[in-house]
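FAQ: What does the model actually see?

It sees only this:
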Amino acid sequence: MKVAIPVPLTKCAYDDPATRDAFERARRGVLINLLVRAGVWLALLVVAKVVETDSQLVEGTAAFLLVPAAFLLVGPAKAVRWMGLVQGVLKSFPWQRCEVVRRQDAKVGAGTGVQLGLGGSGGSGSGEPDWTPVMAARTWRRRTRWSPELEGDAWFAGAPDQGGVIARPGGHGLMTLRPQGAIGTPTSRSGERTPYATKS
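And it is asked to produce this:
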């Protein structure tokens, strides 16, 4: 029988040691990837500018590869930016338990359509959760692969009407949530700006 991991009772999600460790491990991987690709690009630049051979084959090949190699930096750069957005949410909101339902019938711009069930009171005293509008769950990748482990019991940090971050219990498998038509940055409980907001 699967034992439910309790939601941390910290002021913000980032204060939870397990969440912070999972986030920092993911961020380290992204930064290493970016640094390796940048190193390859710089090596090609040095070879193209400094190395001289009689046939100029080496320099010509390196110069030719500079442009495609530069495009390889775009993905990791987007990932670094996305990790910054996730960190902003985790430092502004606490974790709360939620129920995640994938909405395959929903059309979302990028990502996977999901709805969150928050709380158990349902506002009407029925014991049912309050359901958010359909939101797009995604990572920094253009085509995000949905993890079935996120369906059902999950953790949510953010504002239900503005989006936020979902994760598997324990703070793993982070994905951002954005309502359809969301732009800008929402305001956390403390008044600080966080990554998402709805159109006014």
